[in-house]
Amino acid sequence: MSTERSPDEIKREIARRRTFAIISHPDAGKTTLTEKLLLYGGAVREAGAVRAQKADRHATSDWLELEKQRGISVSSSVLHFEFEGHRVNILDTPGHRDFSEDTYRTLMAADSAVMLIDAARGVEPQTRKLCEVCRLRKIPIFTFVNKMDRHGRDPLEIMDEIEEVLGMDVVPANWPVGAGSDFRGIYDRLERRLVTFSGGDHGTHRVDEQIIEGEPGDEVVRAAMGPFADDVCEGLELLEGAGAELDPELVASGSQTPMFFGSALTNFGVHPFLQRYLEMAPGPVPRLSEGEGIDPTERPFSAFVFKIQANMDPDHRDRVAFVRICSGRFQKGVQTQHVRTGKPIRLANSTLLMGKDRAEIEEAFAGDVVGLFDPGVFRIGDTLADEKDILYAGIPIFAPESYMRVEVAGVEKRKSLEKGIEQLVHEGVVQLFSDPEGGSASWILGAMGPLQFDVMKHRLKTEYGVDLKLSNLPYTLARWPQAGFDPEDFRYSERIRVVKDRDGNWALLAQSPWDFDRILERNEALELADTPDPSLFESAS
Ligand code: G4P
User: Fold this and answer.
1) What is the pLDDT of residue 436?
2) Where in the chain is the domain with CATH 3.30.70.3280?
3) Ligand 1: distance of its center to the CA of 27 in Å?
4) Which among 123, 277, 337, 410 is least surrounded, fewest beta carbons within 10 Å?
5) Rounded to the nearest whole angstrom, what is the distance from the C-alpha of residue 400 to the centroid of ligand 1?
6) Which CATH class is domain 288-385?
7) How close is the Cα of 381 to the center of ligand 1, in Å?
């Protein structure tokens, strides 16, 4: 049994938690940075083998790969380690072929985000999409410009691009000294000191840091910057002149992003980033329950389901609901309420998924993520809470980018097909749309990427014994009308398809954003949103 905890202890445990997701485009270095954070957090003693061994990186999730190759305790959904008094939880945001709605849903469980940018490539499409969700949630976003050991773009150019494309003010917390093979350190604008790096055995071990306190113009600082002194001083003066100062309130609301420079490959800059990030990033913040912010430390256990994953491990044909704890302390075996169904539920089979072992955990605190075995009772967005008055706002729907029509003609097991689709749609594997009067004969499935349709087919076959036949549809995006909408206006439209989503909301499917621009130009009263209920993004802070 877990030990008793005093209210003060529980508060302290919650306050020291930092739960974040890394948002990036494939190949920006998320796996590498994650591994280096683990290295500095003491979760691995040596890093570097993962990249070299990653033979078929597109076939599996990066983290499963990491787990397999390092033999360390990595959950498929959350990694955690201790660092300088903080408990750090990194939530996996699958990319590559795994990119799906789950990637977005995970962002709903994070308290902040680290945006990883490849110094040579700048802002890339997947980063932009994930960043947009963070902006809607108004969570703090910290930028790490990676691959400084290669010649990339000018730091000022990257700043401008982020400001322009993502609409955030960028304030460098540090500034690089040298670039490419000459990248040797950073000037820490907040602590007013130079940090230079050496050693690290090409990134397998922690690097040595030499710290020189002082202003950039100080002789000793300039001397340590060597041939880069003039450039660095000029860059820093420009920033100072432009009044680029960090404002904690603007950072907290995500409208200003602190920017850091480094190289995940060589470890240069990883440690200063982690330290500063953990100082500045928020602990668990209040979440909205029916308009009221639920204080993580003042209320007993409450949590919401943000992801449901089935058959993660071929040896266990089961389903796991990932739950983000929002307040209080979670204890194994304790009874709580499943708020949607109004039924009591005992969290006996709760587990923190620690690698394949699925270690049972005794306790967890607000900020943590736990996996619960799901006998089919959970839906995405469900609230679990000791107190019945808590009902978290739920997880928004994100507009799919691929659409397929379900072919029902000639399907033998029509009932099984309908049941299977209904269950998998509840789990959030894909989204279901239909023509207003068409019934199941007009079912349209929507997903972020084609892989989800493969998952759907596979699961319908193995779990329901049905062969799912799908045919391509040309649509690439959906919008949900919020005002000024009349379905009759689109009766003869060739470009826009009017459908209803699973909850009966009107939705419009189109092939390109341009189609929506055109109808908005023609109909001034029409308002479209990229999710049925934009208020679900609202946070309490
Ligand atoms: P991802 O998870 O975001 O997809 O990126 P990942 O860490 O897999 O890194 C993608 C590629 O970028 C890898 O190279 C990796 O070594 C490299 N990389 C990551 N961080 C840095 C960095 O700071 N500097 C440099 N120069 N490269 C970096 P690869 O050649 O595709 O794979 P590998 O042969 O190194 O395994």
Assistant:
1) 81
2) 402-540
3) 6
4) 410
5) 29
6) alpha beta
7) 34
Superfamily holding 20-77+96-282: P-loop containing nucleotide triphosphate hydrolases (3.40.50.300)
Q: In the block, which residue shows the tokens 């389901």?
A: 305
Q: Which of 435, 439, 404 is nearest to 500 (CA)?
A: 435
Within 13 Å of residue 371, how many CA atoms lie on the same side as its CB?
24
Domain 402-540 has CATH 1.10.8.60: no
pTM, whole model, 2 decimals? Answer: 0.89
Ligand 1 pocket mutation, candidates 22, 23, 32, 33, criterion most atoms within 8 A of CB: 32
pLDDT-based confidence at 97, cuts 50/70/90?
A: low
Query: Quick one: which atom of ligand 1 is closest to the CA of 96?
Result: 4
Beta carbons of 507 and 500 less than 8 angstroms apart: yes
Q: Is the CB of 28 under 6 A from ligand 1?
A: yes
Burial letters 170-205, b for 16+ CB under 10 A, else e: bbbbbbbbbbeeebbbbbbbeeebbbbbeebeebee
Atom of ligand 1 nearest to the CA of 24: 3
* Residue type (1 letter), 503: D
DSSP state of 138: T
Spell out the residues 6+ positions from residue 225 whose beta carbon is closer than 8 angstroms to its own.
177, 185, 187, 194, 216, 232
* C-alpha span between 226 and 101 (Å, rounded): 48
Measure Cα distances from 410 to 244, 417, 424 in Å: 65, 12, 21
Torsion of CA 21, 24, 27, 29, to 10 degrees: -50
**Residue at token pair 């979440």:** 287
Instruction: Extract the tokens encoding 142.
Output: 């910290």
Tokens found for residue 122 = 């700048």
Per-residue pLDDT tens for 321-367?
889 999 999 988 889 999 999 999 988 765 555 444 456 678 899 99
- Give strand ranges (E) for 397-538: 402-407, 431-434, 443-447, 469-473, 477-483, 497-501, 506-510, 527-529
Atom index in ligand 1 nearest the CA of residue 35 equals 7
Q: Which of 109, 88, 541, 19 has the alpha carbon at shortest distance from 295?
A: 541
